[in-house]
């Protein structure tokens, strides 16, 4: 397949499945266009296009339909796997964040594309995103540090905890779900940091976020926070 945006869009449209469209629409705004297709087919197309130039990835982000933009996020993730810490990928993601319109676009790309370049460095960028009035930018702030769980130092993880502390009481489900997911996974690696965090913040966190955060802790500890 040619690694141009137009070729990727044509390939995605060739895989349209009307039966999938209602499932896709559940994650979209009412007026957001979509092709309707199986996600595994979308991931396959994106993997085949992983070598496309960044200017073509940006053209995918300009597309109105959900699937080409999701494919662009997948391509960025595939590129980041091959070039961890490539700031050109992060810069494109952040510059075109307005075209990232669903939580799954964030979750697909943010850890490797935004998080990986920050390992061993400053997380001020994530604090800036955490202050955004736009919920999906705040979700990026909470999701990018998931990369630290697997590949960062304890100092990196502490930086991730500091970012999600700024979002702990966020009322938006798309944000506090991401907070809970980060805490759940980070807590497996540094359980004392999780306990300390929850001692400070659990009382003001949305209950859904707390329940996510303690999913993997000992039941006796879990009861301290969720009853």
Report on this structure.
With 227 residues, this protein is mainly α. It folds into 2 domains: 1-118, no CATH class; 120-227, ARM repeat domains (Serine Threonine Protein Phosphatase 5, Tetratricopeptide repeat, Alpha Horseshoe), CATH 1.25.40.290. The chain contains 15 helices and no strands.
SS strand fraction: under 5%
* Structural class estimated from helices and strands: mainly alpha
Mean pLDDT: 96
Radius of gyration: 18 Å
Number of helices: 15
In angstroms, what separates the terminal alpha carbons? 54 Å
Quaternary organization: single chain
Structural domains: how many: 2
Anisotropy-based shape: globular
- Helix/strand order, N-terminal first: HHHHHHHHHHHHHHH
Low-confidence stretches: none
Biggest β-sheet strands, sense, barrel: none
Approximate helicity band: 55-70%
Number of strands: 0
Topology overview:
Blueprint: H1 5-14, H2 21-25, H3 39-48, H4 54-61, H5 66-82, H6 87-95, H7 103-115, H8 124-130, H9 135-143, H10 146-151, H11 154-165, H12 173-189, H13 191-201, H14 207-213, H15 219-226
Summarize the structure.
The chain is mainly α and about 230 residues long. The protein has 15 helices and no strands.
List its salient traits:
mainly alpha, 2 domains, ARM-type_fold, DNA_alkylation, DNA alkylation repair protein
């Amino acid at each position: 397949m040619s690694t141009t945006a137009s070729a990727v869009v044509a390939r995605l449209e060739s895989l349209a499945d009307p039966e999938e469209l209602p499932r896709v629409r559940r994650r979209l705004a009412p007026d957001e266009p979509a092709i309707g297709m199986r996600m595994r087919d979308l991931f396959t197309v994106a993997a085949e296009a992983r070598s496309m130039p960044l200017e073509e990835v940006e053209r995918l982000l300009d597309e109105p339909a959900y699937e080409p933009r999701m494919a662009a996020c997948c391509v960025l993730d595939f590129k980041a796997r091959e070039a961890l810490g490539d700031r050109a990928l992060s810069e494109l993601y952040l510059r075109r964040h307005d075209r990232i319109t669903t939580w799954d676009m964030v979750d697909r790309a943010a850890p490797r594309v935004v998080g990986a370049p920050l390992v061993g460095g400053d997380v001020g960028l994530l604090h800036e995103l955490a202050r955004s009035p736009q919920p999906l930018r705040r979700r990026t702030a909470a999701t990018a540090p998931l990369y630290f769980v697997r590949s960062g130092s304890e100092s990196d993880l502490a930086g991730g905890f500091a970012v999600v502390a700024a979002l702990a009481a966020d009322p938006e489900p798309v944000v506090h779900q991401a907070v809970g997911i980060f805490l759940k996974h980070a807590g497996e690696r540094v359980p004392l940091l999780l306990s300390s965090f929850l001692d400070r913040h659990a009382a003001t966190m949305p209950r859904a976020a707390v329940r996510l955060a303690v999913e993997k802790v000992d039941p006796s500890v879990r009861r301290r926070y969720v009853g």
